[in-house]
Amino acid sequence: MCVNKNMVEGKVEMKMTCDSLCNRHFWEERGITLPSYDVEAVYKKTKQAPGWVHFGIGNIFRIFIGGIVDGMLEQGILDSGLTCMEAFDFDIVDKIYHPFDNLALSVILKDDGTKEKKILGCFAEAVKAKPSETVSWSRMKEIFAAESLQIVSFTITEKGYALRDSQGEFLKYVKADMENGPDQATGVMGIVTAMLNERYQRGGYPLALVSMDNCSHNGDLLRASVIEMAETWQKKGFVDEGLVDYVKDSNRVAFPWTMIDKITPRPSDEIAKELEVSGIEDMQPVVTGKRTYIAPFINAEKPQYLVIEDSFPNGRPALEKGYGVYMADRETVNKAERMKVTACLNPVHSALGPIGVVLGIDGFADLLDDPVMMKMGKQIAYGESIPVIENPKIIRPIDFTDELFQNRFINKYLGDTNIRLCQEESQGVGVRFGVTINAYVSRYGTASSLVAIPLGLAGWLRYLMAIDDNGNNYELAPDPLADTLHEMLSGIAWGEPSSLTDQLRPILSNKNIFFTDLYEAGLGERIEEFFREMIAGPGSCKNTVYKYINTI
Predict the structure, then answer these.
(1) Alpha-carbon distance 188 to 162, whole Å?
(2) Which of 131, 375, 486, 488 has its CA 20 to 30 A from that of 314?
(3) pLDDT above 90 (res 343)
(4) Cα distance between residue 192 and residue 207, in whole Å
(5) Global pTM value
(6) Which DSSP helix (H) or strand (E) runs through 326?
(7) What is the mean pLDDT of residues 124-130?
């Protein structure tokens, strides 16, 4: 039954709920496309026979994976949707999913300034992965025991797979999960392993666990953590040895590799205002207690790429018919992932984003208005990274990079910010730079010929001082190592280059962070030199970048 529109000071208002969808004129008048499929039927079918579960139900999941599934529902390729599970930030479920009947508003921002707006109705169920909530925990067990379940996917960032800290010690919550057993697990890897144990005990049906995070060989990273959790619990008597055999058997539990790419900024305040002015209620973004920036809508660019290793032991939907999806073998996925994560996109973001924060420039596209910053980005991609990667062929690296610099990076309507690009950077610098650095060492014996990459790493360390190029303080983006690294730099004084002695050595030599000892790679002293020049005083970070990039 349709809800009535509200009249507030003569203006028609409507909240995005399932009941409101039958007021088609309201939405279409505002340029918003509605699902052509029966949302309630999709919800019902998904709950009865779940086929696809996802952990990490934030922005990129909703607009990318949700957008793919929504498109397949529109085409009639699928008749069920997604089961959304959140194990880290439960405010997302309470503030963004449940109040809007799990609907989401996709806002695609094109580089010509136009927008594509559509309500997505594919998020059938939102469940808190929390053992202390017995109803939710029991429901999770039912879902994982279902023979119909084919896919469990993840967008939990690099840190979500980690069992150890940068010193190689078990993280506190991981150690607790190992000691307390499956029914008290709180970390994602412990929770997933607990649910796999439930599936093993109740039929042992096959399943694909699909990491969709920007991690090199992400499937292996997920597999290693799950196996270690299972083996530890088996040794402690919490689970049968058969569980270990189950998760190790790729014919029963597969961990395909993937490459994912879609620039998805934080929700735009301007878009929220635009939507609310048009009469759509409660569109304002929220910042959760765990500093997740999220809203009932998601804004992102149009281009997207998802390359997936075709390894699904319990079958799969026709994913290759989804927008931007490529099914491939492992070798091709690896090459595509290296192309994007270690060469063309992520290294450019990770090198320039922190420098942009130090320079006081909010937007990434605005930073690239500076021809020197553009030149630095192109040198990282075209000049220093692409030469040591292999062509995945399904996507040509030069074409991919051309699209980035000619369309995607410079899309000001996207509103991507430099501070967003600094989030979790300590968890990504290893794959984004270390892989390329190691390739140079392997090929030439040293990476000392590199300029833009070490300049970017120096810029990241300079950012971690939390002092801009004019000497003003700012807040660092969320990162599990931000406080630790900031403290390690505390003896360095801005405006006093001589205060830099050996404070960077423990960081630059840390193989857990960079996948290599940067001194052994021939870059440690160079990064120290760049950093020393960047702390000389007002304007010194910008001047250092100009000095070295203009010599290339």
Answers:
(1) 10
(2) 131
(3) yes
(4) 12
(5) 0.88
(6) strand 325-328
(7) 98
